[in-house]
TrEMBL record:
Protein name: inorganic diphosphatase
Residue ranges of domain DHHA2 in the record: 174-300
Matches recorded under SUPFAM superfamilies: DHH phosphoesterases
Swiss-Prot/TrEMBL catalytic activity: diphosphate + H2O = 2 phosphate + H(+)
GO molecular function term, any single one: metal ion binding
Top-level class of the enzyme under EC nomenclature: hydrolase
GO cellular component, one term: cytoplasm
SMART domains cross-referenced by the UniProt entry: DHHA2 (SM01131)
Keywords: Hydrolase, Manganese, Metal-binding
Amino acid sequence: MGHKNPDSDSICGAIALAYLQNEINQPAVATRLGTLSPETIFILERFGFEAPELKLSYARETVYIVDHSELIQAPDDIEQATIMGIVDHHKLGDLTTSTPLECWIRPVGCSNTVIKMMYDFYEVVIPKNIAGIMLCAILSDTVILKSPTCTTADIRCVKELAEIVGIEDTKALGMEMFHVKSAIANTPALDLVMRDFKDFNMNGNLIGIGQLEVIDLEVFNEIKPALETEIASLKEKGNRHSVMLLLTDIMNEGSELLVVSDDITTIEHAYGIKIENGRVWLEGVLSRKKQVVPALQKTFA
C-alpha cells in the first residue's frame, strides 16, 4: 500500500508492485489507505482497473510500503505489522523494522520509475495495462517531465512504457490527466485541500502540506477564501504548527502558497520570501518533495 490520502503514484505503484510480487512467487494484493483522486480514477478506468481495496488496519499482516517511508503517512497500526519492503523516491523517513527488509529507494521523480527498474531486474514482462498506469503515474509525479525532480531515468521509463502501451504522444496523455485534475467545480473546499495532503513531523512540529496542480490558477479565484478557511481549520483541529497549500500552475511553472502558521516568520525564513495576508507566489516551484519540504525541514532543524 501507499500513503494516506493516496495520489496516483501511490495507487498505481501498489497495483504494479503487487503484480510483480505475484510474478516472482511472492503472493501480494494491492490496497489503499484513502479515497481516490479524480485523476487516479481516470487512470484506472482508462486501463481497466478496479480501485484497490480500502484497508485501514494491518496488524499482524506482512506489507510492502510504496511511495513513502514515514510513520505519520503509514497505517495507524503499522508498528503491529511486518514490513517486508519499501519502494520509494522520497527522503528516508522514520519507519523502522525488527527484521531485515528489501529497500528500493532511488532519487527519481516517481515510485513507478523505481518499480520499472524492479521489473527489469527480475526480468518480468510488463503487461500493457500495468505499463499504462505506471506511465500515467510517472507523468503525473513529474508534471509531464517538467518537474525539477524529473531525471533521465524517468524520461527513459516513460519512453519504454509508452512503447509497451502503444502511446506516441505522452505529452497529450499528460495534459488530458491534468485537465481532469483542473476540473474542481462542485467539489467541496475540504475535499480539494485533502486531495493530495501530507503531514510531516519536523523536529516535533506537525506540518501539513497539500498541493493542487492545475493548468490555470484562475479556477481557484472564487474559492481561495474557502480553501483558506479549511486549512485554518485543519491547523486548529489537528494541533498542527502550520498548514500550507500549494496551488500549482503547471503551464506558468510556479505555485501560489496559502499558509496559516503559529510562526509565519519561520515559513518566510525557509524560502526567503515575504508572505502577505497568508499568500505568496513561488516562481518555478512545482515540487513539494524537492522544493518545499527540504527547506522547511532544514529551518525547523
